[in-house]
Amino acid sequence: MAQYSRVSGNVGLITLQNPPVNALSAAVRQGIVDTVKRALGDPEVKSVVICGQNGVFCGGADIREFGTHMTGPPLVPMIHAIEMADKPVVAAIEGVALGGGLELALGCHYRIAHTKAKVGLPEVTLGLLPAAGGTQRLPRLTGLPAAIALITTGRQITTAEALKLSIVDQVTDYSAVDTAVKFAKSVAERSLDGRRVSERPCPCPPDVDALFEAAMQKVRQSARGAIAPVACVQALQAAATMPYALGMQREKELMATLFTSGQARALQYSFFAQRAVGRWSLPSGARWDGSKPRPIRKTAVIGLGTMGRGITVSLAQAGLSVIAVEAQEKPLKEAQQAISGMLQRGAKRRGGAPPLDLITYSANLQAVADVDLVIEAVFEDVALKKQLFQHLSAICKPEAFLCTNTSALDIDLLASQSRHPELVVGMHFFAPAHVMKLLEVVHGSRSSPEAVATAMNLGKQMGKVGVAVGNCHGFVGNRMLKPYLEQGLFLLEEGATPEMVDGALEEFGFAMGLFRMSDLSGIDVGWRVRKGEGLVQPGASVRVRQGRRYSPLGDLLYEQGRFGQKTGRGWYRYDNRHEAKPDPWLNNFLEDYRARHGLAARRIECQEVLERCLYTLINEGFRILEEGIAAGPEDIDVIYVLGYGWPKHRGGPMYYASMVGLIKVLERLEHYLRAHPDVPSLQPCSLLRRLVASGSPPIHKWRKIIKKTQSHL
Ligand SMILES: CCCCCCCC/C=C\C=C\CC(=O)SCCNC(=O)CCNC(=O)[C@H](O)C(C)(C)COP(=O)(O)OP(=O)(O)OC[C@H]1O[C@@H](n2cnc3c(N)ncnc32)[C@H](O)[C@@H]1OP(=O)(O)O
């Protein structure tokens, strides 16, 4: 709802009230319509201020209403009525003005914002476009290039930037509401000529066609297959080429196609999933709402390779003091230089000073004696990590949390090296650690709820989305990757090429197909993992290992010194470091390999590539749910969208399975299992069968069935 009062004699003050972000629910929209009418009809009121309660202007339309039968007054005429008012209306922006919230502010005649507020039109991230006039009003204020950049990315900007772009008229360090009220009084008698944004012309550069062509190319490349960014460009094109009223009509038509699209539903699911994972629970019954994180002031990072550097930067950027430890002087110096550079570049982008003073460098492990929390990021070698945990346990104060950045190793084994195993958790960061938002927080069987809560909270402070997961080889993300990668190799054996497999996956929406990804992360890295699992037999090319089908193709490439991008050769050829080109050598190699093993190459359709790669990955996801390694499908989906390049507009693997239909996933797995009975990852998981037997309930009902399945185990 919206509250109305008269302040400072003759200013009508409208306060949006819908905690926590004053989203524009039906009740709030009705409240705005009613209070605006009241203010404009009151002869004592000479000007109006619109603000939000509790220091937040407005987080936009109420996303929870989407997909329901929407009632209440629509936004477009409501904002139009405000713009057409004959009394000045001022938006007082505190906290955030996002989406419909910013569109409401753009309909006001003036915008006054607090220095710490953020504004933006993030609708594209929800599969929509700003359809309450945002695509038509914003370019009239900022010009087309800035509007294209803001609307197609959904980027939220500071009010300092918004002031430069003329989105806001004034920025203040004091209360934006008090400032706006004073301002509203001062402009009460002023003419509104030129203040109604919709009446302004849209500034058009001479090369407008080229501008839109480039914009379209950029969105098609960066968000492969996503329809909302394309529609955003089309709506902006309408702003540039049509009168306002027709532009609004076009905006509405484009929104109509997006609003009910599967992509919008998937992205909105993802929005709530990213918030739901914060409400973690453990198999012991411990939960986020009953477990208090301990405050962390002093941290340490051990091992300053690529991951350690990124983690150090992330901690310092979150305002935490860090002791950064690297045993050897030369690598320590190199790391110091690299970290300083990363912080400086970060500060240039974000504004402010680089937090260089928060980091102390040391070659001596004793330097971590009084820190509250250690994150070790030494080489992924179990013996090395075990030894380090013994040392840390002896050196650190007894109440210090010991965290390991590992992508697969056993947390219980490492915890058993410490005198306080309850304070040990895994913190699996993703490279580059100062950029990637995902953090898997891995709880071992003895990790305390306080340790999990502390790691999750620290992740949040670092700007990460933490997902609490159980302890197993590869945790959630890497464990699911294994059958996916394995299918890629099997497909090569059967006649596919890397570019064909990658093409299908990239067409599906992955930023990178599995072979390009393997070349980027390093074929040697995968080899080391398989070696650790006892799967590598140098020189051998036997296709059955540990009683199941195995493809040695990756190992054979490793033996050829083809490690991927870093050596210029892998599944592809790299003449310049990043561009993957099909390599005739590889095709010959595959032909020889098939001939040696009596394998006949056959034509493989894209559909088979997708079904085998994706459904085995999804099947492993069901196993993970069944075992309680992930608490719910949202956890897996968040991990895959934020950490593994799963196309955002497809929600995540488990959401995708629910959309394709669980029965179809089950039937196709059974079909491929009949063709490849020696591949256990094609054996449908019993939870999948159970869900299908229960009538394939919608994804938000899976948890109930998972709980029942777990209680049967
Ligand atoms: C046929 C054609 C039909 C056409 C019909 C058209 C009708 C629609 C017309 C116009 C549409 C306008 C589009 C929009 O405005 S879309 C919404 C745009 N806004 C956003 O995307 C903002 C999303 N929110 C955020 O970015 C953040 O939440 C932020 C506001 C920055 C706050 O961040 P933070 O402080 O970190 O807090 P949380 O993210 O954890 O959020 C706290 C809780 O608030 C819930 N929330 C946030 N925003 C919304 C929202 N817009 N609607 C509903 N709920 C929202 C969030 O889920 C958290 O809830 P919980 O604690 O329960 O998880």
Automatic annotation (TrEMBL):
Q: Report the residue ranges that make up the 3-hydroxyacyl-CoA dehydrogenase NAD binding domain in this protein.
A: 299-471
Q: Where is the 3-hydroxyacyl-CoA dehydrogenase C-terminal domain?
A: 474-574, 609-696
Q: Kindly give the SUPFAM superfamilies that the UniProt entry links to this protein.
A: 6-phosphogluconate dehydrogenase C-terminal domain-like, ClpP/crotonase, NAD(P)-binding Rossmann-fold domains
Protein name listed in UniProt: Peroxisomal bifunctional enzyme
Which keywords label this protein? Fatty acid metabolism, Isomerase, Lipid metabolism, Lyase, Multifunctional enzyme, NAD, Oxidoreductase, Peroxisome
Q: Name one Pfam family in it.
A: 3HCDH_N
According to UniProt, the reaction catalysed is:
a 4-saturated-(3S)-3-hydroxyacyl-CoA = a (3E)-enoyl-CoA + H2O; (2S,3S)-3-hydroxy-2-methylbutanoyl-CoA = (2E)-2-methylbut-2-enoyl-CoA + H2O; (3S)-hydroxyhexadecanedioyl-CoA + NAD(+) = 3-oxohexadecanedioyl-CoA + NADH + H(+); a (3Z)-enoyl-CoA = a 4-saturated (2E)-enoyl-CoA
Instruction: Name the EC number(s).
Output: 1.1.1.35, 4.2.1.17, 5.3.3.8
Query: Which Gene3D superfamilies has this protein been placed in?
Result: 1.10.1040.50, 2-enoyl-CoA Hydratase, Chain A, domain 1 (3.90.226.10), NAD(P)-binding Rossmann-like Domain (3.40.50.720)
Q: What is the lineage of its organism?
A: Eukaryota, Metazoa, Chordata, Craniata, Vertebrata
Which PANTHER family does the UniProt entry name for this protein? 3-HYDROXYACYL-COA DEHYROGENASE, PEROXISOMAL BIFUNCTIONAL ENZYME
One GO cellular component this record assigns the protein to is: peroxisome
The reply to whether Endoplasmic reticulum figures as a keyword in the UniProt entry is: no
The listed locations are: Peroxisome
